[in-house]
Specification:
single chain, 173 residues, Rossmann fold, 7-stranded parallel sheet, 6 helices, 19% strand, globular
C-alpha cells in the first residue's frame, strides 16, 4: 500500500517574476522539499506560487493548485492537479485545512491575510499543531514589529510560527 505524502501549502505573491532571485531560490527550496517526500499545494497562479510548483514538480512531487473560478489558470503551469474554488474564502479554507504544514513566501496583502488566518487558527487550536514557516528576509521587519506590538489572544501565539532564513531551517521543520 502506498503511503500518501504529506502536503505543504505555500502562500506567496503572484507578482514576483522568474528573473527575480527570490523566484529561483524558492524553486530550489521547493525541489528539496519534494525530494524529502512532501507534496505541494498553492493558489495555482504565477510568481511565488509558480516557483514553488515548479520546484515541487522537479523534485518528483505532486502539486495541487487551488485556483479561483474568476481568474483564468495561467498557461504552461506545472500543476499536477487543479481544484477550482468559487470564492477567496473557499480557496483559503482548502489551502489551510488540507495541509500538513505551511510555508509563507515573499508576498503582499493576500499572502499576509493567508498567513494571519493560518496563524490565528493554529494559535487558538482550531487546527491541530503543524509547522507554520515564514521564509525569507522580506518578512523579518514585519515579524519584529509584530513581536513588539501585537496583542495576542493567547500567550503561546508566537510559538506557532518559525522564522526561517535558509533552506536548511525550512527542511529541519
Amino acid at each position: 500500500m502506498n503511503k500518501k505524502n504529506k502536503v505543504i501549502t505555500a502562500f506567496g505573491s503572484s507578482r514576483i517574476e522568474p528573473a527575480d532571485l527570490r523566484f529561483k531560490d524558492v524553486q530550489a527550496l521547493a525541489e528539496q522539499i519534494a525530494l524529502i517526500g512532501w507534496d505541494g499545494m498553492t493558489g495555482g497562479h504565477q510568481g511565488m506560487m509558480a516557483a514553488f510548483s515548479r520546484g515541487i514538480a522537479e523534485g518528483g512531487g505532486h502539486v495541487t493548485g487551488v485556483t479561483l473560478e474568476r481568474f483564468p489558470t495561467p498557461p504552461n503551469n506545472t500543476l499536477s492537479e487543479e481544484k477550482r474554488a468559487h470564492t477567496f474564502f473557499d480557496r483559503m479554507q482548502s489551502l489551510i485545512e488540507d495541509a500538513d504544514a505551511y510555508l509563507v513566501l515573499p508576498g503582499g496583502l493576500g499572502t499576509l491575510a493567508e498567513f494571519a488566518m493560518t496563524w490565528d487558527l493554529l494559535a487558538i487550536h482550531v487546527l491541530e499543531p503543524r509547522p507554520l514557516l515564514v521564509y525569507g528576509e522580506d518578512w523579518l521587519p514585519l515579524m519584529d514589529c509584530l513581536k513588539e506590538k501585537l496583542v495576542m489572544s493567547v500567550d503561546h501565539g508566537f510559538s506557532c510560527v518559525h522564522y526561517c532564513e535558509s533552506h536548511e531551517e525550512v527542511l529541519k521543520h
